[in-house]
Amino acid sequence: MKDDHSTPGACDCRESSSDRPCATALTAYRRALMEGRLPETEAPACLRALQLVVTDREAPGSLIPVPPETASFAALGPIEEAIVRQRRTLRATRAALAAFEGPYADVHRTEQPALSRLAGRAVINKALDAAVGSCREELLTAQPGGGRPAQVLSEALPRDLAMLRRGVRQRTIYQHTVRTHRATLSYIEQVTSAGAEVRTLAEVVDRVIVCDRDVAFVPVHEEPHTALRVQHPALIALLVRHFDHAWSRSVPVRPKDAPPRSPAITSDLQRTILLAVVGGETDASIARRLGMSRRSVAEHMRKVSEQLGSNSRAQLGYLLATSGLLDT
């Protein structure tokens, strides 16, 4: 009596993976091996694709099984040939692109790099002198850290006055604390008399110098005495936007017409200090960031502590955060 075999049915291999055929195909192949052939109508498509069954010329309508090793030559041959063609195309395309590297390098060789690293004070000063010396329209500078050393100011003054005489517009932002720094105030008085504009903020985040919106200089904090010369238009535009935003919030310095510290400036400084206290900063950190002494920071905190009735720094931070005093 002939064994009754269930019909495998069509197979679309949805239950299989890329490296493992479906159960239907394995069952059909096993049946073909046992019976010596398989009706064409009952052969899953994947068996044909893998060349594991071929037409039986002696029995039309039937397929006979092929050993996997033999099938591999027919199934893998076209794939391997395609890989060889793709590799050949890859090599040819790579060689073609390489031929264009020479013309590209020739055209761009004369272009200025978007970013240049300047190492050492002498190198930085020389680059700054060249940029400021060739400045024709506008110089923007933001100077953090409070009062500047007298020697630095004495070196910068002749260069800046010469630039102002050429009709260059100079705008500079310092921190409020320069208003009581004698050397910096003397410099400010001389350059403002020559046409410069100087303003102050409680905090200037970073040093930046922009000449004619063509070249800018920014420090590299991770590397002492190192700066970047920026010549990419998009980066310079970003620096100018940040500068203009700070400029709009700053207070003009007029050495002859106003006292060093107006109530608005004192309030701005005090608010910045108290926000830092709420943020958990130490006196030393606040003083360094605002360019002032630790004693001045402590004095501001003492006045507010007395106002709020605080007996400790922790209590002061809590009262500041809950009193609404720093709300805007």
UniProtKB/TrEMBL annotation:
Protein name listed in UniProt: LuxR C-terminal-related transcriptional regulator
Pfam families: GerE (PF00196)
Domain HTH luxR-type: 263-320
InterPro entries: Sig_transdc_resp-reg_C-effctor, TrmB-like, Tscrpt_reg_LuxR_C, WH-like_DNA-bd_sf
